[in-house]
Amino acid sequence: MTNPLRLELDRSAKTPLAEQIRKGIGAAIESGVLAPGARLPSWQDLAAQLGVARGTVRAAYERLSSAQLIVASRATGTHVANRPFAAAVQEAAPDPGSFLETYRELTAGPAIFQMGVPAQETFPAKLFSRLHTQAVRAEMSAPALYPDPRGELELRREIAGYLALARGIACTAAQIVITGGFSSGLGLALRVLNLEGKKVWVEDPGFPFTRHGLALAGLSIAAIPVDSDGIDVGYGLDHAPDAALAVVTPGQQAPLGFTLSLARRARLLDWAAQQRAWVIEDDYLSELQLKGRATPALASLDRAGRVIHIGSFSKTLTPALRLGFVVAPPSLMPRFADVAACLAPAPAPPVQLATAEFLRDGHYLRHLRRTKRVYAAQGDALLKSLRARATDVAIGGLAAILRLPDGTCDLSIARETAAFGLAPTPLSLWSASKGSVRSGLLLGIATAPQKRIEAACERLFGIIERLT
Fold this sequence. Notes:
This protein is an alpha/beta fold. 41% of the residues lie in helices and 14% in strands. The protein is built from 15 helices and 15 strands. The protein has helices at 17-31, 43-50, 54-66, 99-107, 125-141, 153-166, 182-193, 208-216, 233-239, 262-275, 333-342, 349-360, 363-387, 410-417, 450-467; strands spanning 39-40, 70-73, 77-80, 176-179, 199-204, 220-227, 230-231, 245-248, 278-282, 307-312, 324-327, 393-396, 399-403, 425-426, 440-444. An eight-stranded mixed sheet has the order 4-11-10-9-8-5-6-7, with helices on both faces. Strands 12-13-15-14 form a four-stranded antiparallel sheet, with helices on one face. A three-stranded antiparallel sheet has the order 1-3-2. α10 (262-275) links the parallel β8 and β9. The longest helix has 25 residues, at 363-387. The chain starts with 16 loop residues before the first helix and ends with a helix.
């Protein structure tokens, strides 16, 4: 049995075992390893873990209690005492300028204009919580077995049906692997493909987290510009025709919102088939197309089996679920299953089963329809408020794009707004090459309630005027 306190007992030492236990726990409390309020194992349990007599641990606990380091109660057990002078242990701040610092800045919230987060008020929290609770109870009463590392069959079947209906993808449940969100799916795919040292096309501008993840996987970044037809495939063919991978957001380009044109889709798929390259389709925003129906997924046109489709429920439901999926081409299915089993198993079954029932009973499609209506109204209100104060404004997916004068530090403006509960995203962070950097702010629509838009815009432009 493991020792949760990592106590090392020296049975050959002259110091009594009870005193060694007291010193070990006391040191952990004083150093902050055991925080105030932390629960300790009962003296009977700890004695069994350490292989000593119960009276030995009981004596150590009595001395710790006398020193007011721990508090024992029949009702609540034994806890570390809440002492005002206890050492405050704080998590180390990320290094200045590090990617983790940028990540934490971009994901901090909740705040108005924050991107990548759905509106909390549209999520049917009570309904989903009930489904999740039922799934947890069912799991606890079932035999203790290891779940399928690819994910629960019920959820994979529901996703396959949904993708056929909404995204035009003909796939089976066997092709689907459940993941912990898009980033988890990307990591899984990169492990499967094993393309270290190869070139990869990335959209410019494009999602900075994806770009950094590709670099961490050892790929060489080839930045491909984006225009109103999506990623410029011709540019990629001219400048990096030997790339082994392309990562694209064809449905709604992140962050500009353009849809990849049919001609460029065909050209991209032709290149992948001829070059034996792979395409990872980030189904960014999925069905959340505010104007008209979403275009079919790129994977729906793939006849050569070169497209890996990755989706998630982070922006349609909540990122707190940490739930996504990968649709693997048939040729890669065994490899995806192997990697999932050994390195990246699916999240816990209850959240999967709750989501499966949410889809099966039609709640998901109703939720999407309701959410799109709310976002459309918020987007119109935000655009109206912005255009009353600026001219270079556009909607890109679920964000308004506010261009700033050249030379303006959009990062400084974004940081300045944080103190006022605003979280615009600097557009410059999405640029993959220095020559393409444009100053601007991305203002999330989902986190901009209509009743607060006017005041938020007033505050935002006051800060912009002061810093430009």
